[in-house]
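Can you please make up a whole protein chain along with its backbone structure tokens because I've never seen that pairing?
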Amino acid sequence: MIRIFNHYVSKMAFILLLLELLMLLASASIASALWFNDGAGHFRADNLYLSSLTFALVIIFSMSALGMYQHSSREGIRTTLIRIMPSFGLGFALLSALIAVRPEMYFGRGISILIFALGATGVLLTRLVVFKSAESALLEARLLFIGGGQLARECIDLAASKFGFHQFHVIGCVPLQDEENCVPDACLLPMGESLLEMARKYEASEIVVTVTNRRSRAFPVNQLLECALGGVRVIDAATFFEREACQIRMDSLQPSYLIFGGGFDQSLIRAATKRAFDLAASSLITLLTLPLMLAACAAILLEDGGPVFYRQERVGRDGRIFSVLKFRSMRTDAESAGAPRWASRDDPRITRVGRIIRLLRIDELPQMVNVFRGEMSFVGPRPERAYFVRQLERSIPYYGVRHGIKPGITGLAQVRYQYGASVEDAIEKLQYDLYYVKNNSLFLDLLILIDTVQVVLFGKGSR
């Protein structure tokens, strides 16, 4: 994994993206060189460069939006083709809309077919080569865990689930005295020699410390220092989860990790950049979705004649209360009992129109007003109601940390986790929110915005 503006990115996924970008550029350039001229046999490089770059970037965006850089399972030719076809279909639709605005970028029907064919073939071949390389044992990270408790078990489960670009081989766990064993006996390694000798014997590329009680006499602090000085990388479980799952896990979190772990950029430059991004993204989305919002208004009025908008108090940055604006998706008497409650699956309070606009996330669009007012950001932790916040802060440590920045219309928890409707869900989403608060950047905002397209298109997590 590599860090780009504090966010962890798979090396193989990054290499794949660069190779596919070059392949798409080459496909457009080769096809254009064969067919694109000004009628007198002269080459028109201005149109070639602009059109080729546009084609490549749009296809890369389409593949990113449909999750093609989130490789988590074995892919053969058939599976890769099935994933490529919708991405190129979305790219074709986006390019068609762009050409309608800029007709001079149109290649022509024949050359367009050739470019798409060459591009799809190039992407297919590139992916097969990269995926085959990612499965090589030479690129496998070999992990040695210190400790055999519940945290070690969770780390092993995470390592086993990382089949895709970044694969792991778990060597085993070195248990410590006075620690409950939660891993299979087959994973346990005897502590009969020094950790450095063990790491070299098993060719460990990384040692992950999963011990929660580091003040115990059994904790091998000197041996871990010897490993670090001997060239073996040593990390703790919190860093492992942050790097591999984009989570700051509550069960491995210590206050010192938040205090001394870096991140939490609240500089003036970051604030100005984020505000500019918020205004630009909100303005663009508002213009593009204005017809959808007008249709939603008409549909809500036609269904029951009730109010179109719904205002609800939410907790914002530093605990300040503000009124969030949404399209009404529930009956007007949804909370007639008086006490707020989370939405449930197939909630009977949701109207027919409400079910559709929730599925497509159209009900969230009026929150652009909150962004323009400065109460929300486009990307950030989702704002929660004060009633639930008071409950969650009493039961979940560090829950208030998510209020250190402005809440957002979309966020990392929204694109990585299902709809939250319980305390357990709130804990899972908080772990993503803490990662975002700690590592937020314009780069991460853009990645979340791209992932949001996939969430909207496939209705993930709606309720």
User: Anything to note?
Assistant: The CA atoms of residues 96 and 204 lie 51 Å apart. The first helix runs from residue 11 to 35. The longest strand covers residues 168-174. The chain has 16 helices and ten strands.
